[in-house]
Amino acid sequence: MKADELAFLNRQLAGMLRDGVPLEGALRGASREMASGSLQTELGKLELDLAAGIPLADAIERRAFPPVYRKMVRVGAASGDLPGALLAAADYFESAAELSRRAQAVMVYPACLLVVVTVVSWIAGWVFRTVKLTDFDGGFGRLGAVPWAMPALLGVVALAWTTIQIVPAWRHWIAWRLPVLRDARVARAANTLSVLVTQGCPFPEAVGLLGEMERGTPLAEELEEWQLRMASGTTQFSAIVAGPGDTSLFPPLFRWLVAQAGSRLGEGLAAAGQFYANRSRHGTEMLLHGAMPLALVFVGLVMVAQFMPLLAWMGGLVDQIGAD
């Protein structure tokens, strides 16, 4: 399910519920306006469960929604403020969608550039290998192998970058080490914990839900350590996060921002999430805007290197014409 679609759906449902529309009717109306897909299917099944008399808290657990969403709906239903919980979920998934788009831009832009330059380089190499030009003093013959060096190097780099994005373990590893991507991951984790704690979920349970969502990532392993520290009696947030040796994925600034809220843990996590989301946004814009001129220079250098044999051949031709 796409986060932006889930956010839009929750705003629709919250508006209809506040207008007095029953939940079953709101689900039916929202489902009819949606394009076919997994989200529409799950909404239809949820409506049927509610019509059969199954309580919302039980019905939502039977559906393939994200764990954090199921928890928020259960908490909202128990508190009697389901529209408020749905609006909070909409804000959360809108933020998650924005962070995801920025992370994809950082990962996909270099890949597209590498693919385009590699293809152009291979075409240039093929042209120099197949087109027969006059050899002046053996100059072109000596340079004939050069065009294949650049395509081969670019091909290796493009393959490596593509492999990093395809293999989940490598993609998660690089995401927690590139500053722009790491800021987005920190913001997403902080926002998830914040929205759960603010909705009334105990912090240990919120950490467990986040760990379930991040299964197979470096963050999931760290969250397991958080749970062990809490189980051993640690209650201070900075001690839960840092642990012995302070090898946490979350930087000290994150812990300091959360600590500023004191006992209002949800507010502290929200402030930290907002800070790192803004920093990720700024870093992404600087990276993409700064990468554009550098990319043009890089493409220019590649083209110059590729066409050096042709320039050498043309220089030899001009010299011969001048000598004649």
Describe what is shown at a glance:
This protein is mainly alpha-helical.
Helix and strand pattern: HHHHHHHHHHHHHHHH
What percent of the residues sit in helical stretches (DSSP H or I)? over 70%
Total helical elements:
16
Number of domain units: 2
Parts with pLDDT < 50 across at least 5 consecutive residues: 134-146
* Main β sheet profile: none
Structure description:
With 324 residues, the protein is mainly alpha-helical. The chain folds into 2 domains: 92 residues, Type II secretion system (T2SS), domain F (Receptor-associated Protein); 223 residues, no CATH class. The protein contains 16 helices and no strands. About 4% of the residues have low confidence.
List the helices and strands and how they pair.
Layout lengths: L2 H16 L4 H11 L4 H14 L4 H6 L5 H13 L2 H49 L8 H5 L2 H21 L1 H8 L3 H20 L4 H11 L4 H14 L5 H6 L9 H8 L5 H42 L1 H16 L1
Helix pairs in contact: 1-2, 1-6, 2-3, 5-6, 6-8, 6-10, 6-15, 8-9, 10-11, 10-15, 11-12, 14-15
